[in-house]
Amino acid sequence: MLLDKNSQNHYANAQSTATDARVLSVPKGDNPLIWPVLTLLKSSNTSWKVHHLASELQTKGLMHDLDPMPEKDLFKRNFLLMNALYELQDMLMPRQWLQVKAMDIQIFRIIPSNADIEHTRDGALRDYYLDWANYDASVNVVREMLESFWSSYQQYIGVNVQLMHKGHALKVFELDATATDKDIRKQWRKLALKWHPDRDEGNAERFREVCEAWQTLREKSLVA
Length: 224
Description:
Helices cover about 60% and strands about 5% of the residues. By secondary structure, the chain is mainly alpha-helical. A two-stranded antiparallel ribbon has the order 1-2.
C-alpha cells in the first residue's frame, strides 16, 4: 500500500496543474486515525506492515473509500495512514520510538541508538506526509472526510454524544477562556497521548473524558 517516491512525485506533479484543489489549510481537528493506529500498534509486540494496518482499520470501519478512481483512492488511504504514523512518531518522542517503515512498523519502549539518524534520514518523506497540500482534494472535501472519520471513531471508543459545557471542556484540558486554538490543539495531543488506554500509564475513563472535551471544543468552533 505504501507508494514509492516516484509515485509520490507523479501525484505531486499532477497536483501542480490544479492549484485550487491542492492549496489546503490544516483540516479542522487532528487526523483521527492517530488513536486507533496507536491501539493497533500497542496490541501486539510484533511489527506491522502498512497494508495490514490499513486492512485492520477498514475492518473496524475507520478506513473509507476516498476517491472513485482506484489509484487515487489507494494514494489517499496511504496518505492518511502515513500522516497518522508520522504524527504519532513525533508525539511519542522522546520517551518512545515509533519505527515507520512500510514493512516494519512498531513502537520501541527503549529508544534505539540510531533513532536520531533514522529520524533525520526520513525527514523529507515525513515532511511530505505531514503536509496536507499533498493530499489531492479541496479543503472542504478533506474536512468532511475527517469529520466522517471522527464520527466513526466516536462509536469506536464510545464517546458520549451529548457535548460538555464549554467551560467544563476547557477545565478538562486544564485551560481557561484565554486559551488560543494552538493552546487547545497542543493540550489535546498531550492529554490524549497521556491517557490513551493502550499506554502503560493510560486510563480509559480519562481518555474518554479528554475525547469528549475535544469534541465539544471542535463543535463550539474554538479550534479551526
